[in-house]
Design brief:
The chain is α/β, with parallel strands linked by helices. About 20% of the residues lie in helices and about 25% in strands. The protein contains 5 helices and 11 strands.
Length: about 230
């Protein structure tokens, strides 16, 4: 267990709550790296964020539609703060839609055979693979071409938002991750890395890269320092 006295005084990563049942696991993953993390409402304003002065932000997942404006309102100026942002599952879709992209409202609308993207197994089981785009930041982080992930979604990205690019796809072509082309660190992943810290230990690199990005320029990030969290 991490001793809270070990938390770095000047480092805090906040997790915006969009209703995911795994929210506290996300904060725990960050804390296990010795960085303080706190869960906050997605309705937080940019001024409030500036007052808190976090080093990074994570958008959690959630059960509702991204197109429900009342449930998923978010201060658009959050994307102008210049601090690292990671979106998980629904958080990935929020990043895409709120920046001008869109979604297929349901997998059934895609007129081709698809993998099963809502697994009925335990959430810490990886059930299908994704191919990472070479040259992407995500590929740099994981240093592999293929990654095993879990899957709990029925909506998928249709068109990627302007300024973003695809970072990973499933074998059926479904977009599984996006990243901004010029923002220092803005990545969205469709899977739940917080649940895979033991079954797919390499997944911890994503959180470690986020933490490293809060303290260094992206060119200075040493991904070899990524550690396993138990």
């Amino acid at each position: 267990m991490t001793n809270t006295s070990d938390f770095k005084d000047m480092e805090k990563i906040i997790v915006l709550d969009f209703g995911s049942q795994y929210n506290q696991l996300i904060t725990r993953r960050i804390r296990e790296f010795g960085v303080f993390s706190e869960l906050m409402s997605h309705k937080i304003t940019v001024e409030e964020i500036k007052e808190i002065a976090p080093k990074g932000i994570i958008f959690s997942g959630g059960p509702n539609s991204v197109y429900d404006e009342e449930s998923f309102s978010i201060d658009p100026e959050i994307y102008e703060l210049g601090i690292p942002i990671l979106g998980i599952c629904r958080g990935n879709q929020i990043i895409n839609v709120k920046n001008g992209g869109n979604l297929w409202q349901d997998l059934s609308y895609v007129q081709k055979p698809l993998l099963k993207h809502w697994q009925e197994h335990h959430p810490d089981w990886a059930t299908h693979s994704v191919d990472l785009e070479k040259g992407s930041l995500l590929h740099r982080i994981f240093e592999t071409d293929t990654l095993m992930v879990n899957s709990f979604h029925h909506q998928i990205i249709k068109e990627v938002a302007p300024g973003f690019k695809v970072a990973a796809r499933a074998k059926d072509g479904v977009i599984e991750a996006i990243e901004h082309e010029s923002y220092p660190f803005m990545i969205g992943v469709q899977w739940h890395p917080e649940m895979l810290h033991q079954s797919v230990p390499i997944m911890n690199r994503l959180f470690q890269a986020l933490i490293q990005a809060t303290a260094h320029e992206m060119t200075d990030i040493n991904l070899d320092q990524a550690v396993k969290v138990s």
